[in-house]
Design brief:
single chain, mainly alpha, about 0% strand
């Protein structure tokens, strides 16, 4: 087998490879919080490069859009089967890492806070604007899983509604959902601005930030945008946009964020350009034009993206805390060790590779066995997810 897989009908391996890029963006964004560089100018430059976390915000939006696209593309009959597979995919990895994180916090001398811990266990921490539910998570990145679970729960209904959109109206609905996401900061301003900040972000109005960044209903707009995008591709109505052009659109939006108010940085501007990128990569793959993202290396790395996302914060900050002879506590509290630029870069690269290794172990030892054991097969009597009428290829998942 060659290092590059030829795209076959229904095989969107480039989107899997693109996950690896999103995974890297998340790590680089969170790496800045470790403060590994002793040179204050370099540290400031690092924060400027990631736009004080906007790179991570961009990656999160990408994963929400991609999730809606892929789940629509690979949908099969059986709502209960779908829910079962989604829960089995999420919870084993989540719970294993959560237990490890709790043990690390206990070793650091922390007292586990019961309410935030239970909310974190059941992934419902996003549903109430209580900053403590975010600040005292056992594994911070799992807030995105709270959004995903809501999208999974609503998916059969959303799938039915999206399939009812006439093909000639798909672009209209796609633009409408994208504009609605873009308008959220403005729509929330009269009601949620003016409140005090929280210890989560430290500036701005916490209720408004919660609404724009964490509230599952608002973030589900990105998921729905991905679903409609999938139908556009399936029905052959995609207007060819070169991958390079769509990538430049994402870059242009990212640069624009340096000059926009904070409330637009959380999520509002990303969905449309990110969706264009997903559509461009998907159609390039189907046409056999993809060459980099569907390489065996990128696909293998992309397969680890979920496990990587779950483990990267505990690994990153636990390893860094170990250099100070400490355990990491709530809100990644520990004494930061700082180094020269070459040593700091070497540390981040080394921890990234360690996170990849930990993700491989988690996927191999937990995720795959759990899916095989409890993922279930299609059974009679399960309610069907309606299938779209399309001449486009279907991804078997």
């Amino acid at each position: 087998m060659t290092s590059t897989q030829e795209a076959t009908p229904g095989n969107l391996s480039s989107l899997t490879g693109l996950r690896a890029v999103g995974m890297l963006f998340v790590f680089v964004a969170h790496g800045a919080a470790a403060s590994v560089f002793a040179d204050k100018g370099v540290a400031a430059g690092y924060n400027t490069l990631i736009d004080n976390g906007a790179l991570g915000f961009l990656a999160v939006s990408f994963f929400f859009v991609l999730s809606g696209f892929v789940l629509t593309w690979s949908a099969r009959p059986g709502a209960r089967r779908f829910w079962r597979r989604r829960l089995v995919r999420v919870f084993p990895n989540h719970l294993v890492v959560l237990v490890i994180s709790a043990l690390i916090f206990l070793a650091a001398g922390e007292t586990i806070r019961l309410v935030p811990a239970l909310a974190n266990v059941f992934l419902v921490q996003n549903w109430w604007p209580d900053a403590d539910l975010m600040y005292y998570q056992l594994n911070g990145p799992t807030w995105t899983l709270s959004v995903e679970l809501f999208c999974y729960a609503a998916f059969p209904v959303l799938f039915m509604l999206v399939n009812r959109i006439r093909p000639q109206r798909l672009w209209f609905w796609w633009v409408g959902v994208g504009v609605l996401a873009l308008a959220m900061p403005l729509l929330s301003e009269p009601f949620l601005a003016g409140y005090g900040p929280s210890k989560v972000f430290g500036v701005g109005s916490w209720p408004q930030q919660w609404f724009l960044y964490f509230f599952p209903v608002v973030r589900s707009l990105e998921f729905v945008l991905g679903m409609i995008l999938c139908r556009i591709v399936q029905t052959g109505r995609w207007v060819r946009v070169p991958v390079v052009v769509s990538a430049l659109c994402v870059l242009a939006v990212y640069v624009a964020l340096y000059f926009l108010p904070q409330n637009f940085v959380f999520a509002a501007l990303y969905p449309i350009p990110v969706a264009l990128l997903v559509g461009s990569v998907a159609t390039a793959d189907l046409a056999g034009r993809a060459r980099v993202m569907n390489s065996r290396f990128m696909v293998k790395l992309g397969d680890l993206s979920f496990a990587f996302y779950i483990v990267h914060i505990p690994v990153l900050f636990s390893v860094h805390a170990a250099f100070a002879g400490e355990w990491v506590g709530y809100a990644n509290h520990y004494t930061r060790t700082q180094w020269s630029v070459p040593t700091g870069i070497a540390f981040l690269v080394g921890v990234y590779l360690l996170c990849v290794l930990a993700a491989w172990v988690l996927r191999t030892a937990v995720e795959i066995p759990a899916m095989r054991r409890w993922g279930g097969r299609r059974t009679r009597g399960t309610p069907d997810l309606p299938r779209p009428k399309t001449s486009g290829p279907q991804l078997q998942a």
